[in-house]
Amino acid sequence: MKRFVWSVLVLAVLVAAVVGAMQVISRRSAAKEAAPAQPRPLPLVRTTVVDATRLVEESIFPGEVRASATVDITSRIAGRLGAVLVKEGSHVAAGGLIARIDDPELELSVRQAEAAVDVQRARLAQMRAGARPQEVAQAEAGVSQAEVALAQAERDLARIQQLFADGLISRAAVDRAQTDVDLARARLRGAREQLALVKQGPRLEDIEAQAAQVRQAEAVLAQTRARLRELRITSPIGGVVTQLNVESGAVISAQTVLATVA
Fold it and tell me: 114 vs 77, 101, 104, 126, 212, CA distance in Å?
């Protein structure tokens, strides 16, 4: 009998607990329904401007850099360097000046050769132009003077011959007077020939010979100028001076390597 009562009491307690729990749940549900709905948070968004970009795919490999051309700069002549115009690392263009040799005597030789060419050309131009009126007049005056001298020598000879005939002078005086006449006649012939040459002008052979003199002087000038250009030591290629072996004031010989350009 007692076990039955206890069972009924336990069942009653369980029923009461279940009913209480259902009431609590019911009230909470009612409260949630009565409460206003909470808004859902918005997602985070980042914006940006889209630009067109070229995508370059790169690959890195080990390698060795070599110059496409390397030249040793040398001098064709010996001398003292007046100036070195580059240093290691300098950039030079093709034909750029590396150094310069001082040679005042060679520069003087160039000026002398230029003067010689001017003289020979002037002579050739004078021969081609022919005789000037002043030259013709001077030659004619020479003929006149020779004629006057011959006439005077002939008069002296005639006078001395008369004195010899009178027995007043010796035969030697006559001979000297005759010699003077012969010399005066020779001078007159020379003056007349010179006048003819002046009026005729130079012969073609003489003009050609003078033209050859001009060409010879020009050849000497060209050769001297070529040597003068060799005083300027230049680079045959454009590049960078990788090595410099000399400095200003150094005395160099032919084929001395002054610098290396790559």
Answer: 22, 21, 16, 19, 16
- The phi and psi torsions of 91 (rounded to 5 degrees) equal -90, 130
Give the side-chain half-sphere CA count within 13 A for 32: 5
Paired tokens of 168: 């007043």
Look at residues 117, 130, 123 and name the one whose alpha carbon lies nearest to residue 210.
Answer: 123
Provide the 10 A C-beta neighbour count for residue 235: 20
pTM of the model: 0.47
* Count of C-beta atoms within a 10 Å radius of residue 244: 18
Cα-Cα-Cα-Cα dihedral of 147, 149, 153, 156, to 10°? 120
74 with 258: CB under 8 angstroms?
yes
pLDDT by residue (tens digit) across 198-219?
776 667 788 788 888 889 988 9
User: Other CB atoms closer than 10 Å to residue 226's CB: what's the count?
Assistant: 9
What are the tens digits of pLDDT across the range 86-127?
999 989 999 898 888 888 888 888 888 888 889 888 888 877
The rounded Cα 198 to chain-centroid distance in angstroms is 49
Terminal alpha carbon distance of the chain: 123
